[in-house]
Amino acid sequence: MSGTHQGSRDQANPLRQLRLDQLRRRTSVKWREYPDDVLPLWVAEMDVPLAEPVARAITDAVALGDTGYSAGTAYPEALAEFARRRWGWDGLAVERTALVPDVMHGVVEALRLLTGPGDAVVVNCPVYPPFYGFVGYAGRRIVEAPLGDDLRIDLGTLEEAFRVARSGGRPAAYLLCNPHNPTGVLHTADELTAVAALAGRYGVRVVADEIHAPLVGVGARFVPYLSVPGAEHGLSLMSASKGWNLAGLRGGLLVAGPAAAGDVARVPFEVSVGTSHLGVIAHTAAFRDGGDWLDALLAGLDDNRRLLAALLAEHLPAVRYRPGQATYLAWLDCRGLGLGDDPAAVFLERGRVALNSGLAFGTGGVGHVRLNLATSPELLTEAVRRMATAVT
Ligand SMILES: Cc1ncc(COP(=O)(O)O)c(C=O)c1O
Known about the structure:
Strand order of the largest sheet: 2-8-7-6-5-3-4
Bound molecules: pyridoxal-5'-phosphate
Distance between the termini: 48 Å
Shape: globular
């Protein structure tokens, strides 16, 4: 596909641009949650400078005082074009989108559109912890469908969860994470097609959280859920937030399949008006002009995945790591280390390195940690060194 991974030759690796003392001056949660002797590789923020086209768009807006309410369709147009270029998908229709304040509030809104209070929402655990919190906040109830031992969606388990979710005849939704956080697994077109067929058979509505979609390894291809046959009733949440590190510039898009146009049309003005205009400007610039920067990042993340595998093999061979093809997250099975149910607590206390505890990710998280590898090779190396000192 044209344009994909072209820019990495010309652009410097964004993961190698910042020194530790510069990063420690940041005031975001990654750098402020723990004391300065702790190396933070936890929450999904990246140790990168802002992509130049994004920085320019925001700086121009600030210079102009362009800090009012958002208007127009530049954001979905930029995303539709990105989807065409990167994923070969031309099914993102601007008129079937709605601005949402951010992805998780978009998920809440989608669940409110499709289900009623107390209805079931199926998730594939272990999964991004806020899925539990936000489903509860939306007044819905979680039904877990654990991933298989291969960390992929288990269709038999999913079918049983759909059956349970729909028992009593109430509406139900399936909150799919595509690509999957924390494993970095990229679902295939065949898997997504089977999911769509199953959802259709049980009358379960699919809400796909596709926030990590731009973050796919070199040579791999992201498949948008809405692009597979049978997904016409689905909704997707997309954003430039993870791909370009824009969590502080909030914004997201709810995207509907052709048969869900009526649902997205019901997103209230009161929700869409909550999207930050500066966020919209930043996300639009990222999708429109941030391709070369993204390619350089993706090449750097591939290097880091390989580096992490090599470091673990050398210093912590009892840790099981299956590098995913997407996201910048690594899901580490530490049960072989004998550190108990919550190895992240031990790594923090003894090694002074902050990772996410697997316990928050639902069933399947015991004895696991999530490591954020969107940092420099030097800090990644230092993190594994610290983890190893916690064990010896
Ligand atoms: C799967 C997933 N969904 C949503 C979010 C958060 O998105 P937002 O900040 O736009 O709500 C994250 C952040 O890491 C994530 O990993």
